[in-house]
């Protein structure tokens, strides 16, 4: 029989181990890059590196089990979002079952348009489920594990430090004169763009997505900071990330960030930020000519002609045509486009460059509606919490407002690219969702105290 002191010591050890695992998660972008660079090419060991994230998830769940055992109860702190994750999992499985029953076809666009039958093999289904939902496991365990504001602060500061280092590396690429493939800029209007920085992430759109997730938080904390030391630190990180975001030349990331900041300005009722934003938009054609040129290029006949022949517009039309043929359950997860379909060599697979259109084609209206409800629910809950909060001068209020802006910006960016398929982006997305839910819960407890 263990004494109360022994149980308390065990609980403290579990908490200490959990804390360091959470810090590892906070520096995910850096650690993942270092593991790939240092060990990725080594025989045998290199093939195991991609599984380190599953190892981290396993250890976090082990800590939750030990914490629950020490407390004598299991409390997942269930919410509507938990059910939506489960429903999305079920709807995705239904799309696979539908594929096995009806044997659908997808539209292949090369060399000519024609329909080809696709089969959602078990490996494709598992890979599709993993890509779509594995990262939500972070939310489920973090929401149950984290219960104090100090841990949240340390995790957020870790993510800001990591994102700042990633941003600094991206800016260094620009200053050092690195160049990127010409395919990343395909118009004469953009001939002056020699590099779209990609930093340690490896892709400018994914890097832009990472900046969209962390920059609003750093900016929110800059505006909240109570002393000049903190303002300078948060502000410097914000400026570096903004600079990196601009240098990605990712239209989707720019639009996502702007959309997020509009939401932030509204829910925080920050009139001064609204004035600064309007002034920035007015001055943009003068101070950021290349940025405006790349944005406005999307509305030119040149862009639409190219996008309609082997580009976004053609891929979107293909996905919607497939959806019209199989509107209820789609053709099956992983059978139409983006990373899973291309990785498994599915006939006709292309990059759809729209997370929602891809899901319409693969999982139909059932899967897409459950998915949209799942990813938008945290944003709606966050908006309600921030907009109705009376504790407007606290760290958690500022953090929650920044997270809401980040999450909404990411949902907007996924209209122009399937950024959620990037491991770094989706890991941070669900981690931030967990921090948002824990923060709201802590604020509610403080309000009742």
Automatic annotation (TrEMBL):
<dbReference type="GO" id="GO:0016020">
    <property type="term" value="C:membrane"/>
</dbReference>
<dbReference type="InterPro" id="IPR007016">
    <property type="entry name" value="O-antigen_ligase-rel_domated"/>
</dbReference>
<dbReference type="InterPro" id="IPR051533">
    <property type="entry name" value="WaaL-like"/>
</dbReference>
<feature type="transmembrane region" description="Helical">
    <location>
        <begin position="47"/>
        <end position="66"/>
    </location>
</feature>
<feature type="transmembrane region" description="Helical">
    <location>
        <begin position="154"/>
        <end position="172"/>
    </location>
</feature>
<feature type="transmembrane region" description="Helical">
    <location>
        <begin position="81"/>
        <end position="102"/>
    </location>
</feature>
<keyword id="KW-0472">Membrane</keyword>
<keyword id="KW-0812">Transmembrane</keyword>
<feature type="transmembrane region" description="Helical">
    <location>
        <begin position="394"/>
        <end position="411"/>
    </location>
</feature>
<feature type="transmembrane region" description="Helical">
    <location>
        <begin position="237"/>
        <end position="267"/>
    </location>
</feature>
<feature type="transmembrane region" description="Helical">
    <location>
        <begin position="206"/>
        <end position="225"/>
    </location>
</feature>
<dbReference type="Pfam" id="PF04932">
    <property type="entry name" value="Wzy_C"/>
</dbReference>
<feature type="transmembrane region" description="Helical">
    <location>
        <begin position="423"/>
        <end position="440"/>
    </location>
</feature>
<keyword id="KW-1133">Transmembrane helix</keyword>
<feature type="transmembrane region" description="Helical">
    <location>
        <begin position="273"/>
        <end position="297"/>
    </location>
</feature>
<feature type="domain" description="O-antigen ligase-related">
    <location>
        <begin position="237"/>
        <end position="372"/>
    </location>
</feature>
<feature type="transmembrane region" description="Helical">
    <location>
        <begin position="17"/>
        <end position="35"/>
    </location>
</feature>
<protein>
    <recommendedName>
        <fullName>O-antigen ligase-related domain-containing protein</fullName>
    </recommendedName>
</protein>
